[in-house]
């Protein structure tokens, strides 16, 4: 009888120690990716800043998930953006109101938003034109601000930059 009781207690203890996933938050980040150097991406400078992982940032709110992946700064600063929802049609959304800023107060506006229509799932490239060095030089971070998307006043997606 005692061996049976010990086995039962061992099984109960093992079941009680199963970890649960933490609740989702409004802003999540993807698993870490390698920190690619941006050297050579702008002005050919070898001392160009690098971006800390993760390259993909995500914001969820108003029934819409925004996922942005920084793809480089060869021709301006570009992001692959994916918009997903199950509640609204995303075809009317235009990200040309987005801005990019850093902690020094430098802001770049008027990006090019190249995206196909997609209903509940839409993706495209958001590119900020001009010299990437203007916003990447001597900065700790850059932040993509997407205003007024699905009832969320401003979505802020931040990447850490180091040089």
Describe it.
With 163 residues, the protein is mostly beta strands. It is built from 2 helices and 11 strands. The strands form 2 sheets. The chain has a 6-stranded antiparallel β-sheet, with no helix packed on it. Strands 2-11-10-6-7 form a 5-stranded antiparallel β-sheet, with no helix packed on it. Strand 6 and strand 7 form a beta hairpin.
Mean pLDDT score, rounded? 72
Spans with pLDDT under 50 lasting ≥5 residues? Answer: 3-49
Q: What structural class do you assign from the helix and strand content?
A: mainly beta
Strand % is: 35-45%
What's the gyration radius in Å?
A: 21 Å
Number of helices, where a helix is a run of at least 4 consecutive DSSP H or I residues:
2
Q: Give helix % range.
A: 10-25%
Distance between the termini: 67 Å
Shape: globular
What is the chain-wise order of helices and strands? HEEEEEEEEEHEE
The strand count comes to: 11
Sequence of strands across the biggest β-sheet? 1-3-4-5-9-8
